[in-house]
Specification:
The strands form 2 sheets. This protein has a 6-stranded mixed β-sheet. Strands 7, 8, 9, 10, 11 and 12 form a 6-stranded mixed β-sheet that branches. The chain is built from 12 helices and 12 strands. It is found in: Cell envelope. Belongs to the bacterial solute-binding protein 8 family.
């Protein structure tokens, strides 16, 4: 039996990697403080990476972002300009610096980072969630994007992004039409013995469903559609094209590939593992688009 329960998974995730916003499934609406007239779109501070993506999908570059260094490592795209101010840790951003910047609006992820009271004392706020009790992550992303577009009066940009999203997904669905019976395993490595896999309840699963593809991982997942497992559990997967997401852990993967356990995995013996750059596992529409493009290109090359 897998010894990792959800609480341990969260603790491993936060203390070892400080990777994702492990917010609780929340109400199916964005939490906002009162609107301000003539909001300056060029002075929006963002304390978590999901709302960074939402904002940039509407064509707005944030004034400041928490944990820019790790953003470049774990998210990569959309790319931040060099002028974006780094606010420090996402869990404990530099509130003094944030106050000095005098943002017009603070975007955050619910149940993650500073208290709403602290943020609201600096500027109006707007919060978002990765998932909800009513919506899948992708549906929640579209809902959140619409709410943000309404707040910023960017309806045309929202409509344009929506059109681009559907055009790209339709194009990639056609590119991948011959792969609909091939299971796809999506994973990354945490250490020499553990992988994180992605399945039901996650953004990547939503994209696979939209593209008409099968997920090789049919085991348990947590509330965010991921699961930390021992590498030996991958031995249950006989047939799959495996996709590895790198985030500065290429040397780790090189070590693991040399182990007898890894080399004995059935899907490893059949096909080479597809190496992919980082895509934000807990992102929104831009991450979904990037994932679909990278996957289509990689599978076409592998043939």
């Amino acid at each position: 039996m897998n010894k990792f329960n959800l609480n341990l998974t969260r603790r491993h995730f936060m203390t070892t990697l400080a990777l994702s916003p492990l917010w609780l499934p929340s109400l199916a609406r964005s939490v906002t403080s009162p609107h301000t007239a003539h909001l300056n779109q060029q002075r929006i501070a963002v304390l978590e990476w999901l709302p960074v993506e939402l904002l940039m999908a509407l064509g707005v570059m944030p004034l400041a972002v928490a944990d820019v260094h790790k953003y470049h490592l774990w998210v990569q795209q959309p790319e931040l300009t060099a002028q974006v101010v780094d606010l420090g840790s996402r869990t404990e951003p530099n509130m003094e610096l944030l106050q000095q910047l005098s943002p017009s609006l603070i975007l955050y992820s619910q149940n993650y980072g500073p208290s709403i009271e602290k943020m609201s004392s600096i500027a109006p706020t707007m919060g978002f969630s990765f998932n909800s009790s009513r919506r899948t992550p992708l549906a929640q992303a579209f809902y959140s994007l619409k709410m943000l577009a309404e707040r910023l009066d960017l309806h045309d940009q929202y409509t344009l992004h929506l059109r681009r999203y559907h055009q790209q997904m339709e194009r990639n669905q056609q590119r991948l039409r011959l792969w609909d019976d091939v299971p796809i395993l999506l994973f990354t490595l945490l250490d020499n013995d553990h992988a994180m896999v992605f399945g039901q309840g996650g953004l990547f699963q939503d994209v696979l469903d939209q593209l008409g593809l099968r997920n090789a991982w049919q085991g348990k997942t947590n509330a965010w559609g991921s699961q930390i497992i021992g590498l030996e559990q991958l031995a249950t997967i006989q047939e799959a094209r495996a996709v590895f997401f790198s985030h500065g852990n290429e040397a780790l993967f090189a070590r693991v590939k040399k182990t007898p356990l890894w080399q004995a995995l059935p899907f490893v013996r059949r096909y080479p593992v597809i190496m992919q750059p980082a895509v934000w596992f807990y992102g929104a529409t831009l991450s979904a688009m990037r994932f679909s493009d990278l996957l289509a290109t990689a599978l076409e090359k592998q043939g």
